[in-house]
Design a protein that fits this description.
Elements (H helix, E strand, L loop, with lengths): L3 H7 L6 E4 L3 E5 L9 E5 L11 H22 L3 E5 L13 E6 L9 H9 L1
Antiparallel strand pairs: 1-2, 2-3, 3-5, 4-5
This protein binds adenosine monophosphate.
Length: about 120
């Protein structure tokens, strides 16, 4: 299947993976809305919220909680937003949950390599 995120799961396309297990992969968004913007994807291909199996909903959310804990500890955002796009709102047609840290009014610039090191050390 010609799916970008399936290629990331297989390792054919590189990613800044900050957490993964048997069921999910969590990696930094390549075009981040904010510092630490992370995507959580199931390792089995599902299109969207209508398509994803219940078991994987739980796996995605429990991985998201781990990532949120990491982001809170390392980056100290003031809030965290969860977004999951479907239909015409969805660009990549493999289910994914966005974890978007918020920092109030302050816009923080960052280098993705340094951020990746900070989150994985
Ligand atoms: P959506 O509109 O919910 O489908 O969002 C897709 C997201 O995937 C966007 O935020 C993109 O920046 C992100 N994205 C696309 N390609 C990659 C990639 N190779 N690595 C990481 N994130 C990506």
């Amino acid at each position: 299947m010609d799916c970008l995120f399936c290629k990331i799961i297989k390792g054919d396309i590189p990613s800044y993976t900050i957490y993964e297990d048997e069921y999910v992969k969590c990696f930094l968004d390549i075009n981040p809305v904010s510092k630490g913007h992370t995507l959580v994807i199931p390792k089995k291909h599902f299109l969207d919220v209508n398509d994803i199996e219940e078991e994987y909903v739980l796996k995605v959310l429990s991985a998201a909680k781990k990532v949120i804990k990491l982001l809170n500890e390392k980056l100290e955002p003031t809030g965290i937003k969860l977004v999951q796009n479907n239909g015409s709102a969805q660009e990549v047609k493999h289910y994914h949950l966005h974890i978007i840290p918020c920092y109030g009014e302050k816009k923080e610039s960052f280098n993705i390599e340094e951020l990746y090191k900070k989150l994985t050390n």
